Amino acid sequence: MRVEIINTGTELLLGQATNTHLGYLAQGLFGLGLRVERQVTVPDGPAITAALREAMARAELIFVTGGLGPTSDDITRDAVAEVFGKKLIFHQEILDGIAAKFASRHLAMNDLQRAQAMVPEGGVVLDNAYGTAPGLIVETERVIAILLPGPPGELRPMWEAGALPWLKKKLAGRLAPVHEITLRILGLGETRVQLLLEDEVKALGPIEVGYCARPGEVDLRLIGPDPALVRKAGDLARGRLGDAIYAEGGVTMEETVVLLARAAGKTVATAESCTGGLVASRITNVPHSSEIFRYGWVTYANEAKITELGIAPELLEKHGAVSAETARAMAEGALRGSDADLAIAVTGIAGPTGGTPEKPVGLVWFALARRDGPVDTLQRNLSTQRETFKYMASQIALDLVRRALVA
Amino acid sequence: MRVEIINTGTELLLGQATNTHLGYLAQGLFGLGLRVERQVTVPDGPAITAALREAMARAELIFVTGGLGPTSDDITRDAVAEVFGKKLIFHQEILDGIAAKFASRHLAMNDLQRAQAMVPEGGVVLDNAYGTAPGLIVETERVIAILLPGPPGELRPMWEAGALPWLKKKLAGRLAPVHEITLRILGLGETRVQLLLEDEVKALGPIEVGYCARPGEVDLRLIGPDPALVRKAGDLARGRLGDAIYAEGGVTMEETVVLLARAAGKTVATAESCTGGLVASRITNVPHSSEIFRYGWVTYANEAKITELGIAPELLEKHGAVSAETARAMAEGALRGSDADLAIAVTGIAGPTGGTPEKPVGLVWFALARRDGPVDTLQRNLSTQRETFKYMASQIALDLVRRALVA
């Protein structure tokens, strides 16, 4: 079954809003074994009709988001009625429902609201628990169109409570779920991953192999109709990639770290220079991170490294702030100053200034210290784009913690 | 001139990534007086060719993002060559450049990289300062296609340094620029802003008023063809909104804070609990922030507040970690422990657990301490969604620093 999504909204095409509907619906549909084949954004107005005609020629299931409101540029309802050849019928009970919502919020209703009570002949009405415009489902013999309101706070509950259950019932027996494994890999480029395994994976049978690369890392996607085959491909990939895989599915590095630390009953402290608090902030994005994270330092200046982490001024003088020795001393200082089991330290040159020929912008030293255990140090040359640099450095720092927790 | 954008990437249609390119490019094009008429997302693979053919039939300027990498699913280059009827030519100097990038990072290059050195005949090559795949511009007599890499950290600098200057030159004389003022406002909702000024602004003449709302803040956009009129509208809005405006244009709160602090020759220290390092991380996203930021603490646990910021255990015991008294003591402790002129402290309940009827999830206390000056404290109830909560709290914390710097 071919699925397409039409997102309407001039604000999307002006860059004033970001399309979060595509991702939300795509994830929900994937769970039914359906994949979105194409998505288009058109401005409010007549472009909706053209996009609908095109989608109808290709797809059997079409979602349209937005354009269901009461104002003059809300024409999704009319466009669908026209393209599907359905008359629009007035439904008094919808208008009564809208009137009740206005009354309960002590607002006056105006005549424009009446447009929202028009339903293409034979259409299914989806209740809008958080707004006035109802959703609609309109069918021909070959095509289903599902019309959902634009505000995410209205669309999402309507998908959950209305559209999803309707689809499940409608398509019962017709769905052929696809199976997917996503492996998240740090420290290997996408071509390296491809060379390591793609030919062998494809030789197993019908498996789609996809890559999504980000700076310093890549997601490997294995998709296919046969669960046993996808599992086999996943096992093959895990065997080849080993501990370069830091998570599976939609799990983030920081979630992995918090999960592993909680499971091991260990706590982590951070001592950051060039990442400026990003490692701590990412850890504390995870619910319940307070169980494993208690102390963090952002020692951006040398004086802060000396007074807060107890680093000897002579050490800084001799080796410089960006060095294995300083990273190690920062991690050891964080252990001394806290009750943590592990401490991670990062020090580097984020740029744009501060680099030298010997220590260029992008250079970072990491240290991972264990209570009553050895200290690991690591050096990397990362992006010279400041925010990318910080993200990559925080990712490697968290990965060192992850590796210490699984070792 | 009709503009369309084709975003390629199976991950977008699977809901594994969000499309941020559309908004970014739309905003940049808007500055040139160009509006995006349609955007389509297609999976990696042959759908790109079909989407290109359709766009070519309608548009004069087509952007394609993604699919320029070295792996088997990267086919944008081939698709454009095919649809535009251009041969692909190997460019040794591109491969040499890629080889140099690999060498500088001590990585081994493999044969797959060679694909990235192929250029459609007569095409313009856009340098990729932060990755390997170059961008490309391919033209026919009627249509321009601009191919940009998928990673935002590569696309954005390439747009700024390569595609935008090229377009400006190419379209010189053909563009009818629009004028725009964007005011970024914290602490007033969009309907409040609308009621404060929209009628009066519109009475000035042809000015388009737009709002882009985010949790706790809103961007006000004033757009029109007449620069004098847009300026006048801007002045009117500034008069009405006063110091609720924290920045203009694309400037961020953290950039404003670093700019003001550098201008005043003041330094700032941070003492964070619930924001977990996010305030420090946002400050250190700004180049040259090391001039104004030297010391930061992430005192997530009470013990850390006691040992690192010198807070009296009795104070914590009596008032709790989330209180005006603790926030004040944290900010004062950060001043004592550093050489900063200002210290900002944040303590609150990010959730999902830890709330009580008296102190619910979302409650935050802020304190801003000045060396030899008064301490301000502030209480807010923010979102109960963890990451939104952290962002809103960091925004208010930075705003307190901003207000202290302009006072």
> How many helical stretches of chain A?
14
CATH architecture type of the largest domain in chain A:
3-Layer(aba) Sandwich
Envelope shape of chain A: elongated
- Which ranges of chain A are low-confidence, i.e. pLDDT below 50, for 5 or more consecutive residues? none
Kindly identify the CATH topology of the largest domain in chain A: Molybdenum Cofactor Biosythetic Enzyme, Chain A
SSE-based structural type of chain A:
alpha/beta
Number of strands of chain A: 17
Across the major sheet of chain A, the strand order is 2-1-3-8-7-6
Largest interface: A-B, 93 and 95 residues
Oligomer: homodimer
CATH class of the largest domain in chain A: Alpha Beta
Helical fraction of chain A equals 40-55%
Description of the molecule:
The structure is a homodimer of 407-residue chains. The first copy, chain A, is α/β, with parallel strands linked by helices and 407 residues long. Chain A folds into 3 domains: 3-170, Molybdenum Cofactor Biosythetic Enzyme, Chain A, CATH 3.40.980.10; 179-248, Alpha-Beta Plaits (2-Layer Sandwich); 257-406, CinA-like (Maf protein, Alpha-Beta Complex). Chain A contains 14 helices and 17 strands. In chain A, strands 2-1-3-8-7-6 form a 6-stranded mixed sheet, sandwiched between helices. The first copy, chain A, has a 5-stranded mixed sheet with strand order 14-13-15-16-17, sandwiched between helices. In chain A, strands 10-11-9-12 form a 4-stranded antiparallel sheet, sandwiched between helices. The interface between A and B is large, with 93 and 95 residues.
